[in-house]
Write the structure tokens for this entry.
Amino acid sequence: MKTSTRTFIDILYSERPLLHHGETELSRPIDASELLLNARQWNAIADQDICHGIDIDLAEFLFRRVSGGWHTLETGSGLSTLIFLERGAWHVAITPNAEESVQIKRWAVEHQVDASRLTFVPLASENHLPNAHYENLDCVLIDGKHAFPWPILDWFFTARMLRRGGLMILDDIDLWPVRLLADFLASEKPRWECVQKFDRSICFEKRTESVDDVAWHMQPLLYKDQQHYSFRRIKAALKRKLRSRFRR
């Protein structure tokens, strides 16, 4: 199709194709007793074709930044998959919902978007990524299962596959497991640098070759918390000693 940012995004977001069906994070039947959603919230997604697309600000960012020939990967799939394809990336989408691939490819064919560079992995990310061998990825989008600790697991296994200078994008930072990861990466200078933050997503650039060669005392967020914990522990010990002396 190879259109301008505005034209392609306008088409995609005016149509908002229904690429997802029902609860996309589970493939098994769900018993009502497991739900924390009320009936109205659950009925809005259960057994319906819906669009869980990324927000348009992130869509426009992806369209501008992704270049033809890039090697990209996402956990989850949807409108973002179509953007990666339109930009000419060699793209991997990992989600256990195989039907999403059918819908994505159908929309791509109808709109002359080349889907030949798409590798669709119909598996849960925790089952696929530990044994996957992708190297020098230019961009990773974490937008699969949002329950704890899946966003962190997806990041852990894909961060080592991302090249130095590559982009790590987290979607749905309004959800606590993703926000926890975003806060951690924001503290990890100079290993990670925030490139841009949106309403519900954030993009970091990887600034180091390896993310595995660190100890706890090299991570600012953990070290700061440990120092605070140590101070509180010392303070509590002094209070106990003072109380013991007063009793005597």
In short: The chain has two domains: 5-214, 218-248. Residues 218-248 form one domain.
